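Predict the assembly for these two chains.
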Amino acid sequence: MLDIAIIGSGPAGLSAAINGVIRNKEVKVFGTDPEKSSYLRKAEKIDNYLGMPGISGEEMIRKFVEHAKEMGVQFHSGRVIQIFQMDDYFTLNVENEFIDAKTIILANGIVNEKAIEGETEFLGRGVSYCATCDGPLYRGKTAVLVGDSEAAEEDVNYLAEVCEKVYYVPLHKKTEKVDSRVEVIHDKPVAIEGEETVKTLKLKDNEELNVNGVFIIKDTVPTTQLLQGIEIVDKAIKVNQYMETNLKGVYAAGDCTGRPFQVAKAVGQGTTAALQAVSYLHKNS
Amino acid sequence: MLDIAIIGSGPAGLSAAINGVIRNKEVKVFGTDPEKSSYLRKAEKIDNYLGMPGISGEEMIRKFVEHAKEMGVQFHSGRVIQIFQMDDYFTLNVENEFIDAKTIILANGIVNEKAIEGETEFLGRGVSYCATCDGPLYRGKTAVLVGDSEAAEEDVNYLAEVCEKVYYVPLHKKTEKVDSRVEVIHDKPVAIEGEETVKTLKLKDNEELNVNGVFIIKDTVPTTQLLQGIEIVDKAIKVNQYMETNLKGVYAAGDCTGRPFQVAKAVGQGTTAALQAVSYLHKNS
């Protein structure tokens, strides 16, 4: 059982992690490799993180990751699909691996909460956020995968092995290494329709696809789907000054808590969230 | 007229300052030299400021100040005695120099709010926080100065030139360069008493001192005296997640906002406070 599960490997998540480790807690960071994924990489020059003037985003994130690794922070590259609240702990579904944690720190960045029409309505009735988890349900059937990064290709290739027919609607430009059995369609998904379960995915330009399942594989699962009951205000997770959310044992830090979208603020909130989680663990142990 | 007056030169104040400067605002940091005064100096090794593992407090504050100076941050070493709220701006009394500012960021650290009995009651009626400001009122009279650092010695020597008789009650151990006309008493002040104005300072071990004035010179003025009407909860300035206080145009960041007392949190809050002040300036210009 982890003491603290940190969802997100950007500055807020890494800052929370080093503080948790320093306080001798079992900590794990869930997220993609920040040196490849963090938006920070793209910043040419950052001048407002106190103590590191004129640093490039790439160099900054390298220093951050190095610091975390030096402190012994553990990473898990799987996507967290859903977090279930149990009695006094949480269970994370990490692409069908189930991991328990006493507290959660959400540091999942800016999450595009905009769902496809019908996405939320059909979630669990044909819509899935995890090919590894739900792929086997579509053995011999037809599925479409909507993906927003190359990471989705691994999933679509897996579905090609299992399903009768697989469509792939990439939302990003480059597609590489896609299984030849997959039919790639460059288009924009507009609506998911069906009756009891999913029947079609409507597209903007092409004809609609008749499918049994729609897999939506984005780097980040919408927060409201990730953790039921979490309070969102103006697209940001509602926190108080101690980074407590409305759910006991759940903290949030960084861009997911709203403006300003700044490294220093993310790092500071990560520190606060971790120390608050540590204090919660002490009170409840 | 300053755009942003920052009260305090620790990590929160410096972080606020670089962000204000980057956003092209007229910014000034009021406070003692952080390389000499910040509590950070005393930290042997800090491991939880992301990106700078294993750094000494002394080295950290040196890097912070260097960064601020590189960005062109301006410093003012005077003590801010009081901040007056005007119509849509503020006037700072900086040891009798009066400076206007459109917004205020309080980054004055952990302030010992514990007053001497009678201190608040007699403030302005014999009790003063500023020798330069009020010294001339005690020409030919008797005054006592209670000071908590060597910085108070300059003030007590000035009073020795003006007053008939000056007592000095240092709350710290070392006293150097005190004018020979000053009577130094090592004791603990217990209560200030009088009628319309101050008449005596009661001490713990010695007899009471008959005085006309009591000067209390601490590195930091109690926040509630500094700025009338500021809301304090549990000894900390009440802020929301945007570092807004209950007063319009007044923000707070760092240790003065309460736990956790951590560099990363101070730096992050400084960033947020500055950007919020900038946004306020744009809306109100």
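Residues 209 and 284 of chain B are 51 Å apart (CA to CA). The mean pLDDT of chain B is 93.
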